[in-house]
Amino acid sequence: MSDAQRIPPGSATGQDPDTSPFNDTGPIAVGPAAPGCKKRDPIIVAEGVRRSFGALKAVDVDHVEIPRHKITALIGPNGAGKTTFFNLLTGFDTPDSGSWTFDGNNLAGIRPHRVARLGMVRTFQLTKVMGKLTVIENMRLGGADQPGEALWRAMFPWLWRARETELTRTADSLLAMFKLAEKREDYAASLSGGQRKLLEMARALMAEPRLIMLDEPMAGVNPALTQSLLDHIKNLKSTGTTVLFVEHDMHVVRHIADWVIVMAEGRVVAEGPPKEVMQDQAVIDAYLGAHHDVDLGAPEGIALLEDVLSEDAESVVGTEDAGELLTVHEEPDTQDPYGRQP
Ligand SMILES: Nc1ncnc2c1ncn2[C@@H]1O[C@H](COP(=O)(O)OP(=O)(O)OP(=O)(O)O)[C@@H](O)[C@H]1O
């Protein structure tokens, strides 16, 4: 299925992720899963991407492909190079060598705002919302910037007003979905850490990305919001948006990821479907470390790991919000924020 058939993210509420046309369940990889394996339909293809800081090889990726219309988790121990890899792919940092394409476009050397305009948008581990702007002002800033917009605005102010009205309608619809409507006029600085994460994700969706990259979306999010954030991520996939996210909470990874890529010391050491990856010896050695004796292939092993994770303040495991993801959403939002008729 092509990206042209995508549904804008803001209009996803009420759609059942399990019946979405984008939920094709065929194999993701061509052949067996292995580090650097080829995908049937990759949206990102990265080749020989390396970045060192002094003697430290922070990223040393030979080849990796990110599958289109899937949720891919990038996991690995602290310092594995995950955020640096995100920074490189999105133009926030420059590699020593390497190339990568997004939907066939070569992105090496392309600056972050142009990467975003091409449809690849990211959020940050430490949110970058503008504290001195209100929530709605932050949202409007995220709207996809149209070519020649400044000129447009100066010469045809009435056209700009129409565009601003459209942006505001989209923003309000996304704020409602992310349960931030009541905070619309508040300064972003007054939001909790978790609410800022939601705002950053909602703002990223204003650009109607084809790929959204989320750096630790759950960190700092209160358990009451975690479930709805997980639902939003699943919903994005059902609208045809590809998701790549960095996450430490294995419970989250296991529940929402279609594919997992494991990094350690800058390299891709394993990849595959979540269940398989969590039984991989390289992952157990590199990532699960102290819990290497836990058998993740057995229910007892998983229960034991969940006990360990439940002691982690950021984990939803063991909280009342843990459990299966909701696939039925409260009130379907019949208003399309992009103004289209059903
Ligand atoms: N600007 C920088 N200058 C020097 N070293 C850096 C810089 N950015 C990252 N590093 C180092 O590169 C390595 C990879 O860091 P990175 O933040 O990408 O890891 P990570 O996998 O995202 O870790 P975490 O899970 O803790 O966020 C680390 O050893 C880090 O200290």
- How do the strands line up in the largest sheet? 6-7-8-3-9-10
Number of contiguous helices: 11
Shape: globular
CATH fold call of one domain: Rossmann fold
How confident is the prediction overall: mean pLDDT? 78
Helix content: 25-40%
CATH level-1 class of one domain: Alpha Beta
Main sheet specs: 6 strands, mixed
CATH architecture of one domain: 3-Layer(aba) Sandwich
Our estimate of the beta-strand percent is: 15-25%
CATH superfamily of one domain: P-loop containing nucleotide triphosphate hydrolases
List the helices and strands and how they pair.
Blueprint: E1 42-53, E2 56-67, E3 71-75, H1 82-89, E4 97-102, E5 105-106, H2 112-117, E6 120-122, H3 135-141, H4 149-155, H5 157-177, H6 193-205, E7 211-215, H7 223-238, E8 242-246, H8 250-256, E9 259-264, E10 267-272, H9 274-277, H10 281-288, H11 299-310
Parallel strand pairs: 3-8, 3-9, 6-7, 7-8
Antiparallel strand pairs: 1-2, 1-4, 4-5, 9-10
Helix pairs in contact: 3-6, 4-5
The structure holds adenosine-5'-triphosphate.
Adenosine-5'-triphosphate binds at residues 53, 56, 58, 76, 78-84.
